[in-house]
Structure formats: C-alpha cells, structure tokens
Amino acid sequence: MKLNRRTFLQGAGLSIASLGGFFGETILPRHELSRYAQALGASDSRKLALLVGINQYSSTNNNLRGCVTDVDLQRELLVSRFGFNPQDIVTLTNKEASRKSILTAFEEHLAKQVRENDVVVFHFSGYGRQVRLNNGDKSLTESLITSGSSFKGDGDNEDILLDSLISLFQSLKTSRYTLILDTSYQPFEVSTSTKLWLRSYRGDNIPVISSEELAFNKEIKQKNKSSNSLLKGNKSGGTIFTSATEGLATEITSNSFNAGLFTYSLTHSLWQNVAPINNLILTKKVAANIALINGELKYTNVTLAIKNDLTPYYIPADEEHHGDTVIKSVNKNNNVEFDLVGLPLLVLFNYGINSCFSTEIDLSQNVVIQVNSLIGNKAKGVILKGINKVETGLVLREAVRVIPREIDLMVSLDSSLQRIERVDATSALTSVGDIKAINLGDAYGDCILGKLTSNGSYGLFSQAGVLLPNTMAKIPNEAVSTAVKRLSNPLRNKLAQKLVNLTLNGNASRLPVRVAVEYSQNKQNYISYQKTSYSLPLENQKSNIKTTPNIIQQKQLINISAGSSFSISIHNENDYDLYYIIIGFNSSGRAIAYFSTENVMVNAQETFVIPNEKSSIKLIDNGNQGIGELIIICSQSPFNNTFNELYKNSKNSLEEESVIVLENPVAVAQSILLDLHEGSGITPDLVPNLSDVYALDLSNWASFNFVYEIDS
Hints:
Blueprint: H1 5-11, H2 30-41, E1 47-53, H3 67-81, E2 89-93, H4 99-111, E3 119-125, E4 128-131, E5 141-144, E6 160-161, H5 162-170, E7 177-182, H6 211-224, E8 239-242, E9 251-252, E10 259-260, H7 261-272, H8 279-294, E11 303-305, E12 325-330, E13 335-340, H9 345-349, E14 356-358, E15 368-375, E16 378-385, E17 395-404, E18 409-413, H10 419-432, E19 435-439, E20 447-451, E21 458-461, H11 480-486, H12 488-501, E22 513-521, E23 524-531, E24 558-561, E25 565-572, E26 578-585, E27 591-596, E28 601-602, E29 607-610, E30 619-620, E31 626-635, H13 640-649, E32 657-661, H14 665-680, E33 693-697, E34 701-711
Parallel strand pairs: 1-2, 1-3, 3-7, 7-8, 18-19, 18-20, 24-34
Antiparallel strand pairs: 4-5, 5-6, 8-11, 9-10, 12-13, 12-17, 13-16, 14-15, 14-17, 15-16, 17-33, 20-21, 22-23, 22-25, 25-29, 25-30, 26-27, 26-28, 26-31, 27-32, 31-34
Helix pairs in contact: 3-7, 5-6, 7-8, 10-11, 12-14, 13-14
C-alpha cells in the first residue's frame, strides 16, 4: 500500500510501540507499583534534583565538551518524562560548579528541604581522578574535580571525594535518591597516541586531597555514624548509576552535538521504555549501547549499586510521556522547535530532513510535525496536523524516519598524524568508496585511523581508543596508503554495520512482534528477548528456558564462550505474515547473514525458530574475545533486493538454510534499507526527493539488536 501525505495523516493516531525489556522482562508486582504511585502522589512527597556539568575548568586547557549537554538531557528527562517541577531542579554548570557551590546547593536545596519518601536525583558530568588522602599513602581513592580545582599534583585542590558525596546522600531523610555519575577515575593507557575525550583526568602526579575536604569527609561520616559502603553492597538505601568505577567514561564529540556516551545512552533508554522495568534491565540496555561504541569489555562496565529490583529514579514510567522528541517552543506560521531525545545515537547523527513525529492520542486530537532543519539534536519543523494541540513540553514519537542514501563511514584521523600522513590517508580512504576522512571531533567519527604506540603501524580504533579486531599490522612502519588498503575489508564491514544499525527501531515500531535469543553458558540455558509494546507480556508466553540470571551470576551483556551455539525465535503476533532477515557482526568484526530458501517469512500468530530442530547448521561465533552483534529485522514487505544480493554473495549456490560470511556487506546493508523504503510506500507529497533518501514508515518494520560478548 502506498503511504501518501493524506493516508499518513489519517493513520498517524496509531500507537507506537516501545521496547519492553532488553534481557528478559522484569515486571514489578502490582502492589509495588501501587505503593510507589501512592508515595509519589502523596501531598508531602516532592521530587528534587541537583544537576552538575563542567566543560570548562579554570586551571587547564584540557576541557571537556559534552558535560553541559548532559545536564540539559537529564533536566529534559526529569521535567518532561518524570514530571519534575522545573523549580525543583537546580543546575550548576562550568564556573558555577565550584566545590563550595555544589556543597551549598546540596545543603540548601536538598538537605534542608527533603523529607521522607521524597525522590532525589543528583547528576555529575565532568572529570574524575584518583587521589591520595595523605602524603605517602600507597592506596588511592576516587574524587570528582570541580570547576575551580587545581590540576597540579599537590593538595591545593577543590575536589570532592566520591566517598564524601555518597555519605552526604546517606545523611538525607529519604532513602529514595539516585546518583548518576558520568565520570571515571583511573588513568588509562590507550594503544593510540591520539587525543581522546575521556573523563578520567591524567596528570603527571597523583594529587593529595585538600585538608579541607579530608576534614569534611571525616565530619560527615561521623554524623552518619557509619562509613559509606554503598558501592560495596550496603543496602541502607539509594541507587548509583555510573559509567565506570573501574572503567572508562567517554564523550560523544562532533561540531554539532557533544554529550557523555553514558548519559545519552541512559536518558535515551529512559525515554523509550513503557513497560515497568527495573534498574538491572536498564543498566543492561545502557551497557549494550556503550559496548558497541567503546568496543571492548572492560570499557562497557556500567555500575549499578543497590536496588536492582526497583524502578529507575524510584518513579514508575508512564506510557503517555515516552517518545523521541519534546516540543520546546511554538512559533507563528505553524512552526515549532523541538529536541530529539529518544533516537538511537547513530540514527541521530544520520537523521534526515522531512522525518515525521506524531502523538499517540485519539485521531481527532492527533498532532503531526515534520522536520525541516536539524543541528545536533535541535530541530525545527512545521505542524502538519493538530495545530491547536501543540504546546511546549508535548512529547511525540517517531512516525517516518528519513535517512540520506549517501552515507559514508566517518573515519577520524589521529591527531598525532603528520600533515603528509593525513593527506595520504584522506586520498587512500576516499578510494575505498563511501569512506570519508575527518578531523577528530569535527563530526561524529565511526572509528579512528591512528598509530599504534607499540610499533608505529596503523590500525582502527574505537572512540575509547580500543584497537578494533583484525586491524593491527603484522609488520611495523608500513606506509599509510598500504595500511588503508589492508584495512579496506574491516572498513567495509564497519560501514555495513553502521547502515544496518540505522534500521533499529524496536522502541518505536508498531508491529506486535517479539524476538528472543536462547543460549547456553556453564551448562545452563538462558533466554534474552526484546519486544514491542504491542506484544503480549512474557508471562502470557510459554517457555521452558530460564530467564537471564542476576547480574552477579551473568554479566551485563549476553555472555557466551567462543564456539557456543545459540538460537533465535521470532514470535509474530500479527494477523498477517512477516518477512525477516538476520544479519550479524561477530567478535572478529566480520559480517554474516542467515539465509533460508524455504522459510522466508514467519506466519501469522506463529513462532519461527532459527535454526530449526532438524537443521544441521548452528549459529556459532568462533571469534576471539570481544563484542558481537545480532540484528533481527521483521517487515510487512519482502526483502527482495537483499535476497538478490545474498544470492550474488553465495554465487547462486545457497542451501535450504545457510549462514554465510558476507563478501559484499555494504551492498547487502544498502539493500535492506532499500527494501524497507520500498515497502513503506512513502509518496513525494510527504517526503520529496525520494530518490535521494530512504523514507521508512515506522509501522512497516521492527528491528532489534542483541549485543553479546565472547568471553575468554
């Protein structure tokens, strides 16, 4: 069916689905939800927040770029998603965020106002580091660097000990507080010499904490009459979300949008979820997002302290205020300004003009807006429907996704490369095709071309400085043009993965469908699944597989050993058949695909298992230790172009069931987007220049990804 402007506007009142849970749906008992709702609704219950973000530090030129954006993202989430009164949120940014100001704000805004059952949120984005408590100490502890702190290795600093911060919150009259800490502390040796935007400050010397802070730490702990052990398992109250206690906090950097990777992943996930989820499921979702970008297990650590089974921020998320964008202002001539807050990160950086958003309310009251300009996550657009219903703070959901057809892999050049190296690298990358060289930080880089400090050869690195699989040279001191030629296959696989990730919409798809990955570890079977909100709850489904165990037993990502097998189930709850395609990127960085010549669709109201019980093939990742990704796409329309490319890849000799390594991964990825575009049936009166873009109707497909780790 063709989807023209009129048909789209008439049908835009249809519900948009959201992800129910990443690694097994954990539904809180109704009595617990009722208890939380009653507590939050009580007349004496308030929601208070203190948000701190520091880009600019007074005593260093090594400033950060995304911390103030983090504060904006968190504030928007609290106000428009969780119902905080803007007057109950205090923000301190850059020079406002001195040690004195932070402690004063805590005392005046939180300590003096908060009462039992109040909800408190504290957010910090900025540098962290390790310090000594006294001269001569061998043991180190963590601190947050405030705006006026010294970066010299002496005791003349204004750091706040992490231990002091947690002790302050333990002194509150409420135990329902959440600390979000987008910072890290340990200095990391990376294998490239490039400058990276990391939030752990590394100086020449390890400083000693100031005597003032040390005395304050002792004072507050004496008042509490107990030492802080929240991160070690003290269950007295409170929750901490932190990008890393022993890991690494990184920044998303570009000339149009900068933010903390952890903060964006956290807020994006909270914007999308509707079904009651707990803190444990949330951290798994965030860990998966971070793992794909940072690229190594030790950098994916997302720490959750205490209260795994409670709802994030101690506030049940409602269905009405979940979505992808928030209206910021309404101007004359039906024009609006809005922030994009719920899109997947790669989708945000490749989002196209003429994309559409709508509300999910009754058709007669429905609102539809269309993007006509976009910088970073700040958009301007026009109201297509519901002019009288548009107001500041209105939350809308994605309805039509427009992606440019000309999408390149953005390769950031190591800042340490000499001019001649940069010129040669740019020329060589261009010759690969659909690869663009950029200066680090000018635009969002999908990877970094840099030098290994060990032997002077070239490799590809993640934004965290992690060497990507199979990109290290076997011989030292190679020419950069030779290196790019050697790296052409990893670059193409990386581009293909980027393109396929642009289809991810499990949070927004309107199809009632559920997908699951079943796997074994240590002789125990587990299941991890994702579903749209139209899908039936898990308790209505029958399964003999145990749900994913507690985080203490199982790591935050799907964890399997090299050579282990797993299976995929697609549950089609529609009254019509669905086509499907499965693409994978294994821990070695290679692109693979599952292909069946017999079973190209999942019948209505049925479940299809891949591979089936009688099949001789197995889904196995034999790669080295690292991160892998499975992407399952279901669509109302067939994948004809994609199947043609798969036939070409296999030289027309496919078996009934096949798992093939893709020799043409970019062509396959482009064909998937083309199939979804053609199946959407968008017409030029809604989205012009259709030959230059992929215009995708969110009601036509559902795309999910499962991120897994191969353990050693």
